[in-house]
Amino acid sequence: MFKQIIHTDQAPAAVGPYSQAVVAPEGRTIYLSGQIGLEPGTGDLVSENFEGQVRQSFANMQAVIEAAGGTLENIVKLTLYLTDLSKFASANAIMADIIPQPFPARSTVGVDSLPKGAQFEVEAIIVV
């Protein structure tokens, strides 16, 4: 899939692994529900460790993307939810390790709580 990345110096530069905006080509737009760090077999959180939950959340998201016929390259927009925004840099580093460039557009939101006591959730929009 070809993604056109939009960037302007008239707006602030990205402060993490994301683009200011992405133009998606023609195709099917698929809206993925949020994924938290649950182990698929048990439905339990993978661990109490933030980084472990982030990695499992992205793995769960990737499984849904692949079930929809896509790959991580098909992501045009991500939304990250963190219960502790002081862990923003850690989430950025993990995302940069998992998501291929050019990075999708992204929002990050601080929330009071997430289902099952999770510390992190990710949702995506893909175009395949």
UniProtKB/TrEMBL annotation:
PANTHER family: 2-IMINOBUTANOATE/2-IMINOPROPANOATE DEAMINASE RIDA (PTHR11803), 2-IMINOBUTANOATE_2-IMINOPROPANOATE DEAMINASE (PTHR11803:SF39). InterPro entries: RidA, RutC-like_sf, YjgF/YER057c/UK114. Belongs to the RutC family. This is RidA family protein. It holds the Pfam family Ribonuc_L-PSP.
